[in-house]
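User: Could you check the structure of this?
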Amino acid sequence: MQEFNGELRKMMIILSKASLENVYAAFVLANGARMEGIEAEVFCTFFGLEAIHKKKLEHLHVATVGNPAMHIPTLIGGLPGMEALATTMMKKEMEKLDMPGVGEFLDILMASGVKIWACRLAMDMFHYKKEDMIDGLDGVLTVGDFYKRGEGLGTHMLFI
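Assistant: Sure, the predicted C-alpha cells are below.
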C-alpha cells in the first residue's frame, strides 16, 4: 500500500459554466496550482465549453441574474444592457490588475503545463467538433476518462 503524507499533488478542476467570473476562478486556481508545483487539469463541460470555444471565449459575460454576489435585484439585473455593463466594469478592474484576457490566459496555462480537456458528452450535445475548440486542447474525454486521470493519492477535484 502506498504511503501518503497528505501532500496535494494534483488539482482536477471541472468548469461547468462560462460566466466570466467562473472561468477566471477556474483559471486562477489552475495557474496558482502550477505556481506551487502542483499538477493541474481543467475539464470543460456543458456551458464551460464556451471558455475553450475559439469563437466564444473572448465574448464571455458576467452573470447578473441569479447572482446574489452582484447585490442587485434580479429585476434590475435582467434589464437590457445590465450584463454588458457589469462585464465591461469587471474587465476594466481586471485590466487594472494586469489580468490577461481569456485567450491569453489559456496560452499561459497551457505553457505552464495545465492540461485542458473538453467533455465528450457536452461536445456531442452541443454538436461541437474538436476543430471548434482552442488549438492546443489536450483532448476530448468522457467523464470516466477524466476520473481515471484523477486517480491516486493527493488529488483534489473541484467543481466550478
